[in-house]
């Protein structure tokens, strides 16, 4: 669950989800669901992380900030100063609204908004290593440094499973005790048979490992 889609960007000084509107009713209901998720985790003594597709923003917000998109009438978010400012607002409002959230698991490469009718989104970039470094560095500052929350960067299919590519992206980023890179156990996607991912234990950052185990049902 992602509480990032339950904030209303009120700190911009604009009312994108006015009282009584369909979008406000949807957002309030979604936020209540997030509250229940966090309460269950707290009651069980577990950490609670939001699984976040980056970047996803409300269509109403993008209409007011067209510089964050690829052009007039476009809903494709581009990575620039405008989208960074909106993402900063999104992160700040998320942790203010849901202080018991322990951090983000950030996925890039696939973005789903089928269950969020008032939001659109896409992967931040399919560009150069330097752009990926900038994006992760931004999230490190906004999540780990500014809020003291955990950040797990989940590469999905945008980062190649080559050590040279992985380290070129991650080595320029300062380490942080709450920043982790989530690495699949297999090279590329989860396939059978598959070699071990060569980026495991590479570079200077802490990692967690994603493992998929296939179980053969008895005949």
Strand order of the largest sheet: 1-3-5-6-7
- Please report the total strand number as a whole number: 7
The succession of helices and strands, N to C, reads HEEHHEEHEHEE
Largest sheet data? 5 strands, parallel
Helical content (DSSP H or I, runs of 4+): 25-40%
Give me the secondary-structure category: alpha/beta
Question: Given the C-alpha coordinates, what overall shape results?
Answer: globular
Strand content: 5-15%
Number of helices: 5
Q: Roughly how many Å apart are the termini?
A: 36 Å
For the CA atoms, what is the radius of gyration?
18 Å
Number of domains: 1
Low-confidence stretches: none
Can you walk me through this structure?
The protein is of the alpha/beta class and 219 residues long. It has one domain (3-210). 33% of the residues lie in helices and 15% in strands. The protein contains five helices and seven strands, in the order αββααββαβαββ. The chain has helices spanning 22-43, 59-64, 81-97, 129-147, 163-170; strands at 49-53, 56-58, 103-107, 119-121, 150-154, 179-184, 206-210. The strands form two sheets. It has a five-stranded parallel beta sheet, with helices on one face. It has a two-stranded antiparallel sheet with strand order 2-4. α5 links the parallel β5 (150-154) and β6 (179-184). α3 (81-97) runs parallel beside α4 and α4 (129-147) packs across α5 (163-170). It starts with 21 loop residues before the first helix and ends in a 9-residue tail after the last strand. 31% of the residues are buried.
């Amino acid at each position: 669950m992602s509480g990032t889609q339950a904030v209303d960007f009120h700190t911009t000084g604009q009312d994108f989800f006015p009282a009584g509107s369909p979008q406000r009713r949807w957002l309030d209901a979604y936020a209540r669901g997030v509250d229940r998720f966090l309460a269950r985790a707290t009651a069980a003594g577990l950490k609670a992380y939001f699984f976040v597709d980056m970047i996803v923003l409300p269509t109403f917000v993008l209409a007011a900030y067209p510089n964050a998109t690829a052009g007039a009438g476009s809903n494709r978010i581009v990575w620039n100063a405008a989208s960074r400012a909106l993402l900063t607002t999104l992160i700040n409002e998320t942790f203010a609204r849901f202080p018991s959230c322990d951090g983000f698991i950030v996925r890039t490469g696939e973005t789903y908004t089928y269950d969020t009718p008032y939001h659109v989104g896409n992967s931040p970039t399919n560009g150069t290593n330097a752009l990926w470094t900038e994006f992760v560095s931004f999230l490190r500052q906004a999540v780990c440094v500014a809020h003291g929350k955990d950040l797990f960067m989940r590469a999905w299919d945008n980062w190649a499973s080559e050590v040279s590519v992985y380290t070129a992206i991650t080595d320029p980023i300062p380490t942080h005790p709450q920043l982790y890179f989530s690495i699949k156990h297999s090279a590329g996607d989860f396939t059978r048979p598959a070699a071990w991912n060569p980026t495991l234990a590479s570079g200077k950052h802490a990692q967690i490992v994603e493992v998929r185990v296939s179980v053969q049902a008895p005949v």
